[in-house]
Structure formats: structure tokens, C-alpha cells
Amino acid sequence: MATEAADKLAEEIKSVQKRVDSLQQAVRLAGLRDEVEDLDTKCEELRGRVKDLRARGYPFDKELESKAAGLERQWRALRRGILSEIDAEARSLREDLPEVEQLASRLTGRTPSGKAAQTLVARVEREMDALESKIGAAERSIKGTYDQLESEVEVIASHIARLNWVLDQVDEASFQLLPAEAVIMTVKAQWERGGKDEPEGMLFLTDQRLVFEQREEVATKKILFVTTEKKTIQELLLEVPVALIEEVISSKKGLLGHEDHLEVTFADDAPVTFAHFHIDGQRSEDWKVLIGRAKAGEFDRDRAVKLDKDVVEKVRNAPTRCPVCNAPMTQKVLRGMDSITCEYCGNVIRL
User: Fold this and answer.
1) Which domain holds residue 151?
2) How far apart are CA 113 and CA 179, in angstroms?
3) Alpha-carbon distance 240 to 268, whole Å?
């Protein structure tokens, strides 16, 4: 029994020594200094990241530049005061450390037994608890001066990261955007067509089209139900002008309603009249809003990079009847198109 008590006390003393080592770092508020340095770097990089995004061809969110610059200015105004406060709090906390260290040193080399040792351990632990509480209070107080700004920086940084991922998907696509077309969002999706093999891939929303590209590996050979050979399929399966979208219904399905679904109804002259997509990783309600904004032309008003007037005029002045057979031109003209073809006589009309 005595041996068991001695072993327990020895473990407690060992734990005390580890906590003292940690406190020697903690009173410097080193973790807080690292956070401030990280935020410093993030704020400095924001404007450059927005510039890179524009260079990659993303023209929307015209307030991005001003938001990034504004956050950097706010941080510069706060940074010096925050660092001064960290230094002051650290000096105060270091003044409380020697007492803890002296008490802990009295345990070093002591035979781990007896009430005196147990009482000393308990006393050291109380002092350490008090100092840790002070450190936590100091950290919370200082973080309170910049946590709102840090949150705003994280939001815009995450937004930029997502947009870069979207542009990566466009770079990897098997189709090309039109010269005056820009992507708004993309998401992993499955086009549920009611068949056995439902294609999986990426759903793209641009300011002019809704596009689905199949991207998946499919089995080409199986032995006893085990896939032995497969191939990658990357193919454009659907593209419909946003103007031909008539209705979008978002819904939650599946176990516990964790699956996001989009049901899109198109006009009669679209290549399909209906499409059902199961999207993965984003909210279907958000997609419904994005499609609605694209259809209403809101993204054109949210451009940091303005549209070429000549491109806009080409669409506005596109013929409504074929100059050869006088048939009505029903094809939807999109910005960036160089020509349209009469579906009645095959005449190609340059825009």
C-alpha cells in the first residue's frame, strides 16, 4: 500500500515539473505572439491574393480589393498597441512565476512519501492553477481587441481559397469558357437521370451557362465482381444558357436530410427540359440563390472588370431572322459567340 502511495506521489511530482516547464513558456504569451504574427502575414497577403485572382480571370466581387485593403489598414492601426499589451501582460505574468518555481524546486530530490510532500504538491498545484487562470484571462482580453478583425480576415481568405479552387476546376475542364464568359461557382455533383449509371462530375455555373461535365473513373473490366480495368471519362454532357432556366428547386434528402439536391426546369428550346443534380459539399439553397442572381444579371453589376462594350453590342444587335431564309433565329446568343447557325437552312451568320 505504501509503495502504491509513493508511486502515485512520484507521478504527481513529475506532472508538476512538466506543468512548470509549460508555464515558463506560457507566461511569455508565446502562443499569442505566434497568432499575431500569423494574422500579420494573412493581412499583408490579402491584396496580393485578390490581385492573383483577377489575373486568373475572376471578374466578380468588385468590393474584394477595398475589403482587403480596409482589413490591412485596420490591422496596421491595431498591431502596435496589441504587441505593447502583450509585452506588458507578459512582464506582469513573469513576476508571478518565481514563486511557483521555488515551490516546485522544493519537490526536487524529495523522497516521494509523507504528508509534507503531499501538502507541498497540493500547494504548488494551487499556485499553478492561479497562474494559468491569469494567463488565460490575459490572452482572452488581448484577443478580444482583434478577434472580430481576425474573423473577417478568415472569411475573405476562405472565400478567395474557394474561388481559386473553382478556377482550378475550370482549368482542368474539357470545355472552354466563351471569351466574355466567367465562372461563378462549381461543385461536385451527380446528374440523376433515372438510369442505372448516373454520371458523376462537376456542375459549373457561369454568368451565361449552367454546365455539367462528367469526371469519373468507370470500370471497363470485372472478374468475379472485382474491377480489374478502368478508364477515366471527362466529357461535357450538358450546357444550357442561364436565360433558359425557368425554375430551380433546392431540397434536402437522404438519411437525416444530409444530401443537397437541385431540380432545374428549363425552357422548351433548351437541350433538356429538366435536370436533377445531387451536389456534394455545398448547400443546394446557396446554388438556388446563385442561379437566380445569374439569371437576373446581378453578377454583371458586381464586376470589378467591366465587360467589353463591343461584345455587349454584338449580342444586342444579333439578327432575329435569318437573312437567307427569313426564318426566326431561336438560338440564344451568348456574349463571346462569333457566329450563330440558322436551324432551318444551316446558314452561318457572323456576329
Assistant:
1) 2-159
2) 82
3) 11
